[in-house]
Design brief:
The protein is of the alpha/beta class. Helix content is 44%, strand content 14%.
Length: 222
C-alpha cells in the first residue's frame, strides 16, 4: 500500500479527503492520511489560513516524521498570505500559469523529493460549480434562490470554467454562495453537494484538479 499524507487547509477540505478522495485512491493502492494546517501549537488548534512560515514549519515537521511517505497539499489560492512563494510576484500571470508557477516555487522552497504541491483554483467552493443544477437543487431546499443563479455565475467566468470564477473578497466562489444563501454550511452542505456531483464530473469540469488527482493515482510504489 502506497501512503500519502495530505495537508488540508481546513475542515471542509479534510472532509473532502476522508469522504471522497481517500475511498477513490484506495482503488489505486494508495492510502491517504489527512490533517489540517496547524494554526496554534500552544492551543493545539488546526484549520485555517496561516502565514507561510507557520505552514512551512508544520508541513516540514510532517516530512521529518514520515520521510518515506508521499506528501501533498489541498489549500486555496484565495486568501493565501502574501508571504507564500509567488503569491505577490505571479499576480500578473493568467490563472493557470500563475498556479503552475506558485506550485513550482512551493516545491522548490520545501525541498522534499516526495512532495506534490497542489493549490486549488481559486477556492474549495469552485468544485461545487462543476454542476450548478445539483448545486441549485441542494441549496434551494432551505433558501429561496433566483432561477439559475449559480448557473449564471458560472457562465460569467471565461469559457464557463468553474476554476476561473473570480477570487476577490466580494466575488470568490464561497462569497457568491453566501450572498445568496446566508445559511450555507461550508463543511456539511459542501460535501453533500460534491458527493452528488461525483468525482468524474469534478474532473471533467476542473482541469487543474483533474491533473492533480491523476498525478496522485499514478504515484510509483516505493
Amino acid at each position: 500500500m502506497i501512503r500519502l499524507n495530505i495537508t488540508a487547509e481546513g475542515f471542509s477540505e479534510e472532509r473532502f479527503v476522508t469522504d471522497m478522495l481517500r475511498p477513490h485512491l484506495l482503488n489505486f493502492g494508495i492510502y491517504a492520511e489527512v490533517r489540517k494546517v496547524l494554526t496554534s501549537r500552544k492551543l493545539r488548534k488546526r484549520g485555517g489560513i496561516v502565514s507561510y512560515q507557520k505552514f512551512k514549519n508544520d508541513i516540514t515537521q510532517w516530512f521529518r516524521e514520515c520521510p518515506d511517505v508521499y506528501h501533498t497539499t489541498l489549500i486555496d489560492l484565495y486568501g493565501l498570505k502574501n508571504d507564500f512563494p509567488g503569491q505577490s510576484t505571479t499576480i500578473h500571470l493568467q490563472p493557470y500559469s500563475r498556479i503552475t508557477e506558485m506550485e513550482r516555487l512551493l516545491k522548490e522552497d520545501l525541498k522534499f523529493h516526495k512532495f506534490i504541491p497542489y493549490i486549488q483554483l481559486h477556492e474549495y467552493e469552485t468544485l461545487l460549480y462543476s454542476d450548478t443544477t445539483i448545486m441549485e437543487r441542494w441549496l434551494g431546499l432551505y433558501n429561496t434562490l433566483p432561477k439559475n443563479c449559480f448557473t449564471n455565475i458560472r457562465n460569467s467566468a471565461p469559457d464557463n470554467n468553474p476554476e476561473l470564477i473570480n477570487e476577490s473578497p466580494e466575488t470568490a466562489p464561497s462569497k457568491r454562495i453566501l450572498a445568496l444563501c446566508d445559511s450555507y454550511d461550508k463543511i456539511n452542505d459542501g460535501i453533500l453537494i460534491l458527493k452528488d456531483i461525483r468525482l468524474e464530473k469534478l474532473r471533467s469540469e476542473c482541469i487543474h484538479f483533474n491533473e492533480w488527482l491523476t498525478q496522485l493515482e499514478h504515484l510509483p510504489a516505493p
